[in-house]
Amino acid sequence: MHVVFLAGGTASGKSTVARELERLGAWRIDLDEVSRAVLAPGEPCLDEVCAAFGDDLVDPDTGALDRALLARRAFADDESAERLEAIELPHIRARLVRALTSERCGERAPGLCVVEVPLLDRMEPMLDLADEVVVVTCPLDVRRERARGRGMDPDDFDRRVARQPSDDYLRAHADVVLSNAGDEAALERAVRERWGSHAAS
């Protein structure tokens, strides 16, 4: 099974690429979902986070994490954000390794697995798990307009982009760069041309 790490900024077209690969038969993993899973009630990662940021983060009745409160504390300064990442990343990596290993051993393993990576710069310790790093790029003004069309406030878009790795960083760490300056159909066609014969085989 060929493992692709897929990265790109907000409204770049990363999800379009992931959906098309999934439609072609690839197995799709979203690291945002993995990061939420490691903070589910009863998970060891949650205990470590509470030890670092306060036991009151968890509802005593349900065991559920107050994610908004964690965000306020963890992202109050760079040191706190780095501490949270240092706690979470080993658990995210371990869960991803387990998932990839079990899928590779399955009788009907797909030929391709696409892992959606929200912030590639935070995932550098995990890049050894990828056979290929694919980056989707798109001009910033086009991305801003697309985000606005989806209902995102332009100021919110700019704040998000400021926290994301630059296109130069992404290109420097990519094995493949997909340009999404055109329409969605063109991007989907580029995906089919490159991976269509390998996604499910």
Q: Can you describe what's shown?
A:
This protein has 201 residues and is α/β, with parallel strands linked by helices. It has 2 domains: 1-26 and 111-201, Rossmann fold (3-Layer(aba) Sandwich); 32-109, P-loop containing nucleotide triphosphate hydrolases (Rossmann fold, 3-Layer(aba) Sandwich). 50% of the residues lie in helices and 12% in strands. The protein has helices spanning 14-23, 31-37, 44-53, 67-74, 78-105, 140-149, 154-162, 167-172, 184-195; strands at residues 2-7, 27-30, 112-116, 132-137, 176-179. The protein has a 5-stranded parallel sheet with strand order 2-3-1-4-5. Helix 1 packs across helix 9 (184-195) and helix 3 runs antiparallel to helix 5.
Keywords summarizing the entry:
single chain, 201 residues, 9 helices, alpha/beta, Rossmann fold, 5 strands, five-stranded parallel beta sheet, 2 domains
Total number of helices: 9
Widest sheet: strand ordering? 2-3-1-4-5
First-last Cα distance = 9 Å
- How helical, in percent, are the residues? 40-55%
Looking at the overall shape, the CATH architecture of the largest domain is 3-Layer(aba) Sandwich
Strand content: 5-15%
Q: For the residues shown, what is the average pLDDT? A: 89
CATH class of the largest domain: Alpha Beta
- Bulk shape: globular
Count of structural domains: 2
Order of helices and strands: EHEHHHHEEHHHEH
Note the main sheet: 5 strands, parallel
The Cα radius of gyration reads 18 Å
CATH superfamily heading of the largest domain: P-loop containing nucleotide triphosphate hydrolases
The secondary-structure class comes to alpha/beta
CATH topology of the largest domain: Rossmann fold
Q: What is the number of E strands?
A: 5
Q: State the low-pLDDT regions, or none.
A: none
